[in-house]
TrEMBL record, chain A:
The keyword Glycoprotein does not apply. It comes from Kitasatospora paracochleata. This is Aspartate carbamoyltransferase. Pfam families: OTCace, OTCace_N. The gene is pyrB. Its EC number is 2.1.3.2. Belongs to the aspartate/ornithine carbamoyltransferase superfamily. ATCase family. Heterododecamer (2C3:3R2) of six catalytic PyrB chains organized as two trimers (C3), and six regulatory PyrI chains organized as three dimers (R2). It comes from the Bacteria.
Automatic annotation (TrEMBL), chain B:
A motif (PRPP-binding) lies at residues 107-119. PANTHER family: BIFUNCTIONAL PROTEIN PYRR. Belongs to the purine/pyrimidine phosphoribosyltransferase family. PyrR subfamily. This is Bifunctional protein PyrR. It catalyses: UMP + diphosphate = 5-phospho-alpha-D-ribose 1-diphosphate + uracil.
Length: 326, 204
């Protein structure tokens, strides 16, 4: 595995399965009285959040604490960033404080990649969502949830499973991360969205595109609803919310068209009445809450695999200089 | 390392064959029943990889002797190791604790070779996070000495005095196709805590 997790496109099939299998083992921990492992004792993990997030940040924090890492939360609000500090200077500060890993969420696409490629930080960089680019741990937890329902067992992938992702693909980092990872795991991905919410250049992605949700539903093993990201919308992408909801929203009637075994997923936060009705959201087929629980296991697995073994900081001096020379 | 490589390694020779291993497992099972006065509250926990197979064999024997199903589980101690930072992160094995748990039980840890004692230290730490056993005992197929921690086994299949240059290899039909214990010169690709301490620059 690479030293950073910036994009799911960097993960090979073996890497992805290793993360899923490790998460499967770590999931047992939540059933125990002592939900803690000593593995990352003495490692410092910084949660660097330039954008609001409750779910992802809490999930990372729980995962870090369960592995006994020292957790530092750094949010843009109320920090030196609001005084005009650049990403580089923030990173240099964190490096000086001895961060072993930085979990970064940034409103600009590519900010985690910039951190990972620079020599500002020596620790691992974990992308927790950057702009409209990627959100790899979300894709991993989605794949983990799908595997548990569709093809359970260690070492199994999602070969031949049909995954439909519906909604605001244009602004969705979840969709981008998912399409690469699901393709790596052998699944067939179909995007369903109004033409205005389909990104330019989607024909280069390993996926199908459809504008008709009802036609796709009977051929779906897992259906993922995306939130319409109003905060990122700078134009009228569809006439009215009601029209969007009628054509692309999930309701009880549409749920009945899904095959018996199919699950309905949502990365959250859900907007009930918009992309999903309360009937679907509260049905046992909806895995939204399960996805949150799985998120902790996946993030523990990622943190363990990146930080649990030998890292650059532990390597002898000789290895350091030889890497620098390359 | 070049000095070691120049002396040709001896081929490993067998110290226990398949029938010896079977006899040892039977004897340890009887010792457990004797020491635990009928093995009423015994829980067997095998430590990956070969400890699990040995624990399963012990369970079969104990079931034959006592006529009761003895609870059996597996323990992966990777997350508790003290040498995690010497290698890249490794994959986890499956930990399965019997449904009734280990609280108030007599837990018997089972492993193939007792060497530095560091694996057992990690297993004890793992146990304390899972529950509170009445007591913990240790059963091993081979005790090869060279302890680095104050740990000893309660049930030993064979005491095998070795030098640090030697390697003890336990083979079990479940993983290696045959039962037996071999002793030979240390293969330098197989790394233990001692080998690492002696030479931390060994190739992966």
């Amino acid at each position: 595995m690479k030293r950073h997790l910036v994009s799911t496109a960097d993960l090979t099939r073996d890497d992805a399965l290793l993360i899923l299998d490790t998460a499967e083992e770590l999931a047992q921990l939540s059933g125990r009285a002592v939900k803690k492992l000593p593995t990352l004792r003495g490692r410092t993990v910084v949660n660097l959040f330039f954008e609001d997030s409750t779910r992802t940040k809490t999930s990372f924090e729980v995962a870090e604490k369960r592995l006994s890492a020292d957790v530092i939360n750094f949010s843009a609000k109320g920090s030196s960033v609001s005084k005009g500090e650049s990403l580089k200077d923030t990173a240099l500060t964190l490096q000086a404080m001895g961060a072993d890993a930085v979990v970064i969420r940034h409103h600009a696409s590519g900010a985690p990649a910039r951190l990972a490629q620079s020599d500002w930080l020596h620790g691992s960089v974990i992308n927790a969502g950057d702009g409209t680019h990627e959100h790899p741990t979300q894709a991993l937890l989605d794949a983990f949830t799908m595997r548990r329902h569709l093809n359970p067992g260690a070492g199994k992938d999602l070969a031949g499973r049909r995954i439909t992702i519906v909604g605001d693909v244009l602004h969705s980092r979840v969709a981008r991360s998912n399409v690469h990872l699901l393709n790596t795991l052998g699944a067939e991905v179909t995007f369903v969205a109004p033409p205005t919410l389909v990104p330019i250049g989607i024909d280069t992605w390993p996926c199908q595109v459809s504008y008709d949700l009802d036609a796709v539903l009977p051929k779906t093993d897992a259906l993922m609803m995306l939130r319409v990201q109003r905060e990122r919308m700078n134009a009228a992408f569809f006439p009215t919310e009601r029209e969007y909801s009628r054509r692309y929203g999930m309701d009880g009637l549409r749920m009945a068209q899904l095959p018996e075994h199919a699950i309905v997923m949502h990365p959250g936060p859900m907007v009930r009445g918009m992309e999903i009705t309360a009937e679907v959201a509260d049905s046992p087929r909806c895995t939204a809450v399960e996805q949150v629980a799985n998120g902790v296991s996946i993030r523990m697995a990622v943190l363990y695999l990146l930080l649990g073994g030998a890292t650059l900081a532990d390597a002898p001096r000789t290895t350091d200089s030889s890497e620098a020379a390359q | 390392m070049t000095t070691h490589a120049s002396s040709a390694p001896r081929p490993p020779h067998q110290v226990l064959d398949a029938t010896d291993v079977a006899r040892v497992v039977t004897r340890i099972a009887h010792e457990i029943v004797e020491r635990a006065k009928g093995a009423e509250d015994v829980v067997l926990l095998g430590i990956h990889t070969r400890g699990v197979h040995l624990a399963r064999r012990l369970q079969t024997k104990l079931t034959q002797i006592t006529g009761r199903e003895i609870p059996f589980g597996t323990l992966d101690i990777t997350m508790y190791r003290d040498d995690l930072r010497l290698k890249p992160a490794r994959a986890l094995e499956h930990t399965e604790i019997p449904a009734d748990g280990i609280d108030g039980k007599l837990v018997i840890l089972v492993d193939d070779v007792l060497f530095s004692g560091r694996t057992i230290r990690a297993a004890l730490d793992a146990l304390s996070d899972i529950g509170r056993p009445r007591a913990v005992q240790l059963a091993v197929l081979v005790d090869r000495g060279h302890r680095e921690l104050p740990i000893r086994a309660d049930y030993v299949g064979k005491n095998l005095p070795t030098s640090l240059r030697e390697a003890v290899q336990v083979q079990l039909a479940d993983t290696d196709g045959r039962d037996g214990v071999l002793v030979g010169d240390r293969d330098y690709t197989a790394r233990s805590s001692q080998a690492l301490a002696a030479d931390p620059h060994l190739p992966e």
